[in-house]
Every structure is written in C-alpha cells, then in structure tokens.
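User: I've been going back and forth on whether these two constructs are worth ordering. Before I decide, could you fold them both?

Assistant: Sure. I'll take them in the order you sent them. The first construct and its structure tokens:
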Amino acid sequence: MKARAVILIVDDHLMNIELLEAYLAPEGYEIIRAASGEEALEKLSGNQIDLILLDVIMPGIDGYEVTRRVRQNGKQRLLPIILVTALQEKEDRVKGIEAGCDDFLSKPVDRVELLVRVRSLLKVKAYNDLMINYRNELEAAVNGRTEELKKALENLQQDIAERKLVEESLRKSEEKYRIVVENAKEAIIVTQDMQVVFVNRAGLDMIGYSEKVLTPQPIINFIHPDDLDMVADHHVRRLNGEDVQPVYSFRILGQDKTVKWVEINAAVIKWKEKPATLNFLNDITERRQAEEELHQTLEKLRKAFASTVGVMVSAVEMRDPYTAGHQVRVANLACAIAAEMGLSDDKIEGLRMAGFIHDIGKLSIPAEILSKPTKLTNNEFNLIKEHSLSGYELLKNVESPWPLAQIVYQHHERMNGTGYPQNLKGDEILMEARIMAVADVVEAMASHRPYRAALGIETALEEIRKNKGIIYDAAVADACLKLFREKGYKLSA
C-alpha cells in the first residue's frame, strides 16, 4: 500500500492549524502540528516529513529562520516549504525566497489553492527523491565495483560457454527424438490452433495425404462430420486445462474419402512457445468392425434368448391360466424397483428375463393343484414350494449373461432366513432375488387367485411396509413403496 504523505503545519495560532488540517486530512494526508519554530525543528528531527506549511510571524524563531535552518540541513535541503502569511509586501516575499521557501499562501487560505499547491510540490519532491535514489544507486554501482564487474564478466563468459554446450546437447537430443518420431509405427500429429503443424510418416500413411498437402490445412478437414463437434469439444477443453478423457476414438477421412476409425491419446505441449496438442493415433478400424459384428451377434442371441423365454412364459401360463400375466407383471414391477434403486441397465435386463420365467418350475406341478379353487392342503403347498428348485434345475445349464437360475432358485428366500428352499439370510441372497421376492408378493396379493379373491394393492403394500427390514430387504421395500405411493405406479401386463 502506498504510504500517506506527512505534512508539518507550524503556526502559533491553534485555529489556523485546525483550519489547514480540516482541508488536508480528508484528502488522505497525515498531519503533524507545531505551535512554534522551536517545536517545528524538533518535529523535523524526529519524523519523516514530506512538506511544511509554515507561518512567518511567530514568537521566538520566525518562519524565515526556520526555513534557513532547514535548507542548511543536508538531508532536508530539498524539503518543500510553503510560507503561509498575511504579509503582502514585496520585500517580505523576497525575504522568504532568499531564506529558501518554495511557495507562498496568503491568509485567509483558499482550500482549492492550498490543495493544488500541496499536490504540485509533493510531486516535485517525489521526483527529487527518485533522482536522489537513482544517483545514489548509480554511485554505489560505480564506486568500488570493479572487482564485481570483473567477476560478473567471467560468470557471463562461463554462462555463454555452458549455454553453447546445452544447445549442442539439445540439438543432438532433438535429432535423436526426431529420428524416433519419424520412424514410429504409431501416427504422431501435432496440432496448433486446430491446424496440423507436424505429422510423422505413420500419420501420413494413415490419412493418405502428403505432408505438403496436410500441414497447411485445418485438422477439421480430416475428421468425419458426425464426430467433429465431439473432437473439437475435447480439444478446446483440454487446452483450457479441464480434466478431459485423454483416450477416445473417432473417425477420420482419408484422401480417397475412405473412413477409418482411430483411437487418440492426446496431451497439451508447448510448440514454438505456444500451446499445442500432441496426438498419438492408432488405426482401430478392424477392431471396430469386429466389435460391431460381435454386437450384432450378441443382439441376435439376445433376441433368440428372449424368444425362448417367451415360449417358456406361454408354456407356464397355458398350464396355469389363473396366473396368466403374473410373471410379466412381476417382471415389470421388479424392473421398476431396480431402476428406482439405481441398478445398471444390464442388471435390469437380467431381472426382466428372470421375472418372465421365475415360475417356470410350476411346469412340474400337476395342473389340478395349480387351478384348485379351494385352500391347498399342506402336502399340496409343499409340492408347490418345490417349483423354485424345479425352475433352478431347468435353467442351471442354460447359457445366459445373467444368473437366471439363481434368481429363480432364490426368489422365495427371506432376509431373516424364513424363506425356502435353502433358508438363506441377508447378503446370502442375490439382490436381484430380493427385488423379485418383493415384486412377487405384491403382485400375488393384489391379484385374484383360484382359492381366494384379490386382497388389493393397499393390503399388499402394508405387508411390505410391516415386514420391511425383517422379511424383505429394506432398500427394496422403500423403493417399491415409493413407486406406488409417490409416483403412481400401477400393476399392468
């Protein structure tokens, strides 16, 4: 912070001092007071003063004498002095100039004139101080520095010699790296301001242009239009210092307009003292084609598997017409719960497939038991409970990207171990099976059965709420309740 200028006001009348201080203090000046010439000289010896406002007529030492003594002091000889006086005679002013004052102000003092004269003389003082400092530094630099200058010259000569060695080493290093870069099998391209400024042989072979054609052109000329925005966004964000994925893929256009997939690994560098991007490119066209073929194959398999699952669903429902649509409704609700819980799309798809066939084991149960209109006996109920194991046996050797057999096997297990057929507890049960259990109970209680009328959705939800964290997984139960009570979910095929 710039220091405030310090002004010494000298006057034997306090009212005059207070008036001048009232003008100056609001302008940021620091004020020191003195009521006589003797006190003024004392204040000068003990403070760093930048300017004096000095009354002339005072008892004891008058303003003229104070001015003469200040000018006789080597350190204060250039200190600005303004005589503030009511004397108007020419002889009085000549006497002040001969004593060494810099300016006059007539009493009563005008505020504007005071401020202008003070600012002007403070500027002169600042310039004088600067010149004195410069002269002192110059004298110090010249006087007695011969040995230092000699040593500095020797150091300079040594630095020049070392710089030459470094430059020679750098030249050899650059030559070595240029050879490596030029002969690298990986395409290396340097771009600056979205323009190609360097490309190695592998890069030329990849794109198919000569260096003469390639380097003057913007890089966007060689990027597939559908990928242009993405590449430009990566480039700009990387140069701005943002955290951008360094490796990604896009398509380039060769000289013959052929499309190639490339994988790029980019980094920000300095190229001729300006920001640039160093890009390493690999041709991954064959890999992308193989991935696309694999994706198509997997999609065909997925559709074939879904068709097979559909046949299984139809088979179950043909034997148990009263539960027609049950499996589909359970699958839909299970997927909705999984989505509410934030499970991945892949797990949700697996839940859908498992939900469609979770009761496939009922194929082994006599149809007359499945459609019995009265309450089941203990033996009949125990037989129906076998459908989880039967479903597992049917599915355990089926190739699938999801644990369908285990989900079907566990969908009647309960968190406290009271379920069947394995009496599993807590984390022993797959998350997908915990979700299926809740969806199965809600749909079964809310729907009609041969041996009873539908109990209703509210009864089903109360069952889930009451046994949340006991029989049913707490997170699954919360997601299910939220779907129905906050998001208006409804059971539908």
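The second construct, handled the same way:
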Amino acid sequence: MAELQILDGVDLELLQEFERGLDPEHPERSRIPAQVLGYGEISTVFAIQAGGLQGLAFKRLPLFQSREEAERYGAVHAEYVRILAEEVGLHLPAHGQVMVSGPSGKPVFYIVQQRMAGESIGNYLLHHLAPEQVYRLLERVLDEMARAWHYNQTQDRLRVAVDSQISNWAVGGLEAGSRDVEAATLWYMDTSTPLLRLGGVEQLDTELFLRSAPSFLAWILRRLYLQQVVDRYYDPHLVTVDLLANLYKEQRTDLIPGAVDTVNRWLAAGGTGQAVEPFTAAELEAYYREDARIWSLYLGARKVDRFLRTRLLRRDYPYILPGKIVR
C-alpha cells in the first residue's frame, strides 16, 4: 500500500499572521503575498510566499462555528486520509492539519499538503498532452478510482469515495518535461471533502456544504441537491460521468468522442468489478449543461450575498470567490 507522509513543523504563528492580513475579496492584496491555486465549493487553495510556508499548498476552510466542530471535521478528515493511503492504496501528497483564528474569532481550518508542480496537474495536462496520452491519463484516473470501488466491495459497513475531477490528480515526474503518463505515479490531492460512510451514515457533516451558501438559497440546496450531490461520488457511473464532463469544462470537446470510446472499453474490460452502463456523448453534454447551470447560478447568488454582507451590513465575508469562470 501507499505510504502516507505527515507534515510536521508548519509555522503556526506565520499562518495566523497570514490569516489576519487576508483580504477575502482581493486575496492578491493581502498583507502576506499569496497565490490562489484553486477554488472549491467549501475551500480555497493558496500558495503562501512567506518563510517556511513556501513549497506547500494550504486549503482554507472558514466553515466552522466552534473549535469543537472543527476538531470533529479534523478527526473525520484524518481517518479518511489514512484509509485512502493505507487501505485503499492511493498516493497522497504529504498531509497535515492546522487551525488558526479567523474573522470574529471563529476557527479557520487549513489542510496543508506538499505542493505539486502546476504542470503535473490533470487540468493543465489536458491542454499539453497528445490525445492518446490524455486518454491514457483518464484510464489511469479510473484505475485509481477503482481501488476505492474494489475496497468498498470488501467491506461490510465502510464505504469511501473520491472526487474524480481531473484537477484533483497530478502525475509525478511530468514537471521535468516528460509526457509519458504510463509509468509515472498518479497522486490524489483533494481530501477536503472526506467522503466516508459507516453503516450507511455519512461521517462528514454535510451541512458544512451549505455554510458558504446564501441563507436565501440554503434551504433549496438542502431540499433539492445536497443528498444527490453527495450520493453521486459513491456511484461509479455518475462519478465517471463527472470525470468525462471535465472535457467540456476545460474546453476540450474535441477529445470527447475518443474519451467516451476509451472509457467504455475500460468498463467493458471489467475495471470497476461491477456492472456499469456505458456512456454516450449526449449523456455527458446533458450532465455538464445542467451542472454548469446550477453552479453558475450558485456562484452568482454567493456574489450577491457577499455584496449584501460587506457593503450594506458591514459584516465580514470569510469566503473567497472566483472571478468569471469560462465554461
């Protein structure tokens, strides 16, 4: 199985100073220089250009109302990371956890990882690999996801899931200029949503997904979408659709016919260990259009919420939102 390395010695005082000087609306203007590496629904990923914090990726989660709540999340996250590395066998970057004080004294939780080179990450590679190598990369991602599916089949009560998004994967060694994805190590990076069920009960408090949602939308998302979004990560068909739909998001629709053929051949060879229906390009397009519509509306509502809180109510808005997203 893969070996999980634990990060030690993160400069907590320096990270606290970064948090105090962070401008959530304009991160680039923060007191300590930082680069936004990526945005998620519940986290933002930073590279912080200061002292001993360099060379690391910091996933910031300003979701928690109390230290106890953050510690419960931390315990689930730590167990999820351990299972993925030691039992499922995924390769994870070196991991750590730290907590600092955020706006209004509430805790802000940081997942700290060894930073992977930008040119080794999946969404970058979609634009820099030959088509045959992109298709092999998709197969490699499916091979890694199948580890979780096979693991679940050996368990009575425990189930784990991973997020298939191509930006969550990095290919070790490609930063040196190689373009051969065949023999390189594939790394899984996104552990901020610890998808772990015990006896059918989600161990993560899924209400955390709604913390960053505007109050006027939270009840709609809870009623119509929350369980559906969480469930799809445990469904091999739906999570594979999500992986392939990345080609729409990344403006590589030219690769979809070949990708569909590649994945359907992979499925026919029995890679999941269970029956999974084949895919069509029409299914992917319909899925992506609906998903893009929902998240575009959601992001727009969050920007309205940020304006109301910061401009009219003069309150803190601790979340960091992306700019215009090209879809």
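Notes on the second construct follow. The chain is about 40% helix and 15% strand. The chain has a mean pLDDT of 88.
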